[in-house]
Amino acid sequence: MSKISIVAAGDSFITQRLPQDIHFAQLKNYIEAHDVRFTNFEILLHDFEVYPAPTSGGTWAVARPEVLQDIKQLGFNMMSWANNHTIDWNIGGILTTMKHLDENKCIHAGVGINLAEASQPRYLDTPEGRVALIGCTSTMSEWGMASAQRPDVLGRPGANVLRYQAINKVRPEDFEKLREIVEQTEVNSNRILNEREGFSKPVEGGYYVGSIRFEPGEEPGTVTKMNPKDAERIVRSIREALRQADVVLVSHHTHERKGLEKDRPADFARDFAKLCIDSGAHAYIGHGPHIWRGIETYKNRPIFYSLGDFIFQNDSVERQPTEFYDLYDLGAENTVSDGLDARSANETRGLVADRRVFESALVSFAVTDGEIAEITLKPLSLEFEYGRSRRGRPQFSDKENGERILRDIANLSVEFGTIITIKDGVGTIGLK
């Protein structure tokens, strides 16, 4: 009988070294008790020898390469790094990060020197069997996507991206009014001219305003649909991995949400998660919004729509480019702290003021001969109350706060029909 144990953490946005204290030791002991130890590595590694991109995934995510030592010492042995920060420091940042990951013998997925490499499964051999990881992201601008190699043109380094299309439905009578109002102005002239000259493709039965798609419908609202070409490519990777490994994991970074509800996944993410399981994946591991989303069990396999944060030192970055300061009308005399204070209105708004960002959980489960019987959740606190200098460091929660965190995760999971049993500060989900 083959039994492979897996522990998964959410985003590791690590910008400073972690202290080697009792909390670090407890996490390390727990993580290393598993065969497979996964996190989403949401940072780029360099010593500021590369050029920044003109825009970022929110913060220009960067740390000195030494932080990778802490990730390895905690025991993580598989990671994805396809996310909205992959291109923050241009292609140079991708190449330096790749160099440091490779030099440290890290198994990493989701980014490559071209689309074929970014899409390919990466493998970990354990005493009980082989595990494959496929990484992808949906929160990414087009210039951060890896491109396919041609016989005559190099592919472009970047991330394995699952694109999606948002379709905004309005009532038929309002659809005609919308078109009439837009065409009273020049707001859509670039789109119309591009369609006429063959640079953009018109939509049948709908109407684009810039890149925003509208269609008439009796039930107004917005739905999102995954790009079928990207989905087919990822399914091919899953099917390849199934022939080469005993367990297949899919990591998906997606900030996209249902309306304004950050703790609910977008429609396309729910569809994609089920597609992964239908194609043979043993688990879908989501992350991105920096808070937890619910857990769904589908065909006796787990769908984690978001595991929240494991390490979140977003406001401890060492340096930022001039575009960061321009966002807040700051100049060359200002410092990173000035920019962070302006962004957060002195820590009264945004991610730094949201306790949910700094409360999370590790999930663990075992795959025994292809089957999963139970999922365990161990709640985490990321020192929200300690301010910028310590905030974002993980530790196991005490029993009272841990059970409160687990109740929040349980409430998010209700809409998926998932029941989480909470006892002695630990959550469990039975799959059989």
Task: Explain what this protein looks like in three dimensions.
The structure is a single chain. By secondary structure, the chain is α/β, with parallel strands linked by helices. The protein folds into two domains: 3-149 and 225-319 and 354-430, Purple Acid Phosphatase, chain A, domain 2; 172-216, no CATH class. Helices cover 26% and strands 28% of the residues. The protein has eleven helices and 24 strands. It has helices at 22-31, 67-73, 90-103, 115-119, 172-182, 189-196, 228-244, 267-278, 322-326, 336-344, 399-413; strands at residues 3-13, 36-41, 78-80, 108-109, 111-112, 122-126, 129-137, 158-159, 164-170, 207-209, 212-216, 221-226, 247-253, 257-258, 261-265, 283-287, 295-298, 301-304, 309-312, 359-368, 371-381, 395-396, 421-423, 426-430. Strands 1, 2, 3, 4, 19, 20, 21, 22, 23 and 24 form a ten-stranded mixed β-sheet that branches. The longest helix has 17 residues, at 228-244. The two termini are 18 Å apart. 43% of the residues are buried. The model has no long low-confidence stretch (mean pLDDT 96).
Feature tags:
11 helices, 432 residues, 26% helix, 10-stranded mixed β-sheet, 6-stranded mixed β-sheet, alpha/beta, Purple Acid Phosphatase, chain A, domain 2, 2 domains, single chain
- Overall structural domain count: 2
The H-level CATH homologous superfamily of the largest domain, spelled out, is Metallo-dependent phosphatases
Termini gap: 18 Å
Highest-level CATH class of the largest domain: Alpha Beta
The oligomeric state is: single chain
User: Based on DSSP secondary structure assignment, what is the total number of beta strands?
Assistant: 24
Choose one word for the global shape. Answer: globular
Spatial extent as radius of gyration: 22 Å
